[in-house]
Structures are given as C-alpha cells and as structure tokens.
Amino acid sequence: MTDLRNRRTNAARAWSVAGAASLCILICAALGAAASAVTVVLTPATVIVSPMNTFGVEVMLRTGSQPVDGVQVYLTYDPAVLQVLSATPDATALPIEILPPAWDNATGALAYAAGILSEPAPSGDLRVLTIRFRALSPHPGSTIAFATADPARTTKVSYSGAILAANLTPSVVTVVSATPTPTSTPPTTTATVSGRVVLQGRSDHSGALVCVGGLSTTTDASGVYALSPVPGSYGVTVSLGGYLSATCPGVVARAGATTQLTEVTLLAGDVDGDCQIGLFDLVVLGARFNQLPPAPPPHLDLNADGALNILDVVLLAGNYGRFCPNPWACP
Ligand SMILES: [Ca+2]
Ligand SMILES: [Ca+2]
Fold first, then answer.
1. Residues 6+ apart with CB under 8 A from 184
2. Under 8 Å between Cβ of 53 and 134
C-alpha cells in the first residue's frame, strides 16, 4: 500500500509538472499558427496477448517533412486489464525530458513530454517512448487511448511555438483466455488394403501390379502388397504379363483400418495378353520354343527360369481354355 501511495503521489506530482511543462509549450504554441498535420500513433495498432504475458507498445510520431520540437503524450488504459511495467523514452529525436515517464496503474494513466531546443528540429518517423505492459485478465478489446478528459492533459505536438494539428491513433489490446489447446487426434484420412499374390509356377512372386482406388504398387518377392487409399469402396485388380488378371470388386477400405484380402493365385499362359489362354498363346510360345537366356521376354518365360521350354508349355496347357477374370475368392 505504501508503495502504491508513493507511486500515486509521484504520478500526481509528475502530472502536475507535466501540466506546467505542457502549459509552457502550449501557451507558447498557441501564439503561433497551426502547421502541417502530424500523426501520433501507438504501434502495433492491435495486440493479441494471453493473461500475464507482456508486450511492448511504441509511441511514434509520423511527421513527414514537418519538423517538430515538442511532444506531450497522455494515455489512458483499463487498469483491470493492463498494467504498465516500464516506459522508456527514446531520446534520439527529442532528447530533453520535460516530463519523465509517469504512470499510475491504479487509475490507468500515463504521461510523458519531451522536446528539443536546438535546430534542426527532427522530422519523419520519430520514436518517442516504448511502454511495456502486462496483460492481466481476458478482454475482447481494451483500448490504450489518448486521454481527452482534461484539455490541459491531452496529447499534442508543437513546432516553433505552434501546436500542430495531430491525428491520434490508439492501440487495441485483446487479451485472450489462456485455454489449453485441446489435444485432438487428427482424423484418419487413409485406409490400408493388403494381401498376397501367388504367381503360378514361380517361386519369386514379385512384380505383379496391384491397383486400388487410383493407386498402384507391385508385389514383393513373397507376393505381398499393401496400398493406402482414402477410405471408400473399390475394385482391386492384380495383373502381370503372361498371366490372367484378377479383380476383387466391392473392397471396403475403412479409415484407420487394414482390409486384408484373401490370397489370389494368378494362372499362367496368357502370353498374348488377350485375357484368355488358348491356341494363340500356344503358337506364340511355340514360335520361340527352346529359346535360352537372356532372350526370353518375361511374359513368355512363364516360370521365370530364364528359358522357354517344355515347363512353360506345361503351365500354359494346364490352363488351356481359361479366361479372365482369374478366379479370386474374395468379397
Ligand atoms: Ca491369350
Ligand atoms: Ca521358362
């Protein structure tokens, strides 16, 4: 309490000094003619902050080419929402403190005045004061405003005895509730479809093409595949040159789940790719019978042993008359 009283007394004393100082500036200024408009701006214009966090607001003069030699700043703020921690003058442009920074967190008021006695007087964008605030309690929009209650204690800018027309731009502070961020699990956007393909007559089952919902992959050596389409209902197709292709319609891929399809064995012998195993396949294979490595194309070398021989013919003959779709006991 003693500290608070001292602060209030100091603030009141400072404001009194400020009043006298500003009176000097302003009476003198009243004798002069108004010059170009300048802007006194609090920047940033908007602040979003959480309770108990601190932030800085600068008091800036934007004068363009208009020189200035004095400024007095009187601000108000809601002391239930904000508290001033410090106010630091920038003496670069206006080095003489006419009124050192003074504030009162009980009433929510701050004052400061500064000037320069020598020429050239500064112009342009001039920082006057940096104020450090602490946010106290949530508020949708609390304004750090230029005081208007007492005409002797309003914000003014002067040059050579004249008060300059000044636009005053306040700052609005939104103090947001410090609500914890909910730890929500993002919705699953993919599903998984997996299974195994056996290539008849082979021990290496790699290379079969599997297509699901616009995605595709090939099987590994053990014939296993997995794809992750967006959830939905799809037809799954499996194919490889030299084999009948298989289709599993109506496969439901559920978000975050794996749909395991039954194993499918592709039948060998459709070497001309017309979706049936017949005489033409036998003719094509026969035309290159006994061809040795590395010449046999993969779709003719049905058992993938590097040669076209009786073993491939036997495979084909065993499936003679079969056609697409390749049998697949699946949903
Ligand atoms: Ca064929
Ligand atoms: Ca072969």
1. none
2. yes
Could you report the per-residue pLDDT of 244-301, keeping only the tens digit for each?
999 999 999 999 899 999 999 999 999 999 999 999 999 988 888 887 767 788 899 9
Domain ranges in the chain are 2-175, 192-318
Ligand 2 centroid – CA 322 distance (Å): 20
Q: What fold is seen in the domain 2-175? A: Immunoglobulin-like (2.60.40)
Give yes or no for residue 102 having a pLDDT over 70: yes
For the whole model, what pTM was predicted? 0.47
Rounded to the nearest angstrom, the distance between the alpha carbon of 269 and the centre of ligand 1 is 7
Query: What is each CA distance from 257 to 67, 95, 190, 193, 248, in whole angstroms?
Result: 72, 70, 8, 9, 18
By CB atoms closer than 10 A (0-12, 13-18, 19+), residue 13 is: exposed
How many C-beta atoms lie closer than 10 Å to residue 129's C-beta? Answer: 21
Q: Residue 157 has which token pair?
A: 């800018």
Mean pLDDT of the chain: 86
- The count of other CB atoms within 10 Å of the CB of residue 127 is 17
Same fold, 2-175 and 192-318: yes
Q: From ligand 1's centre to the CA of 281, what distance in Å?
A: 5
Q: 94: CA distance to ligand 2 center in Å?
A: 94
**Structural Rg of the chain based on CA atoms:** 42
Q: Which ligand is nearest to the CA of 291?
A: 2
Q: Selecting from 2.60.40.4130, 3.40.50.720, 3.90.650.10, 3.90.1150.10, what CATH number does the domain 192-318 have? A: 2.60.40.4130
The pLDDT value recorded for residue 213 is: 84
Ligand nearest to the CA of 307: 2
Average pLDDT in the 209-216 region? Answer: 92
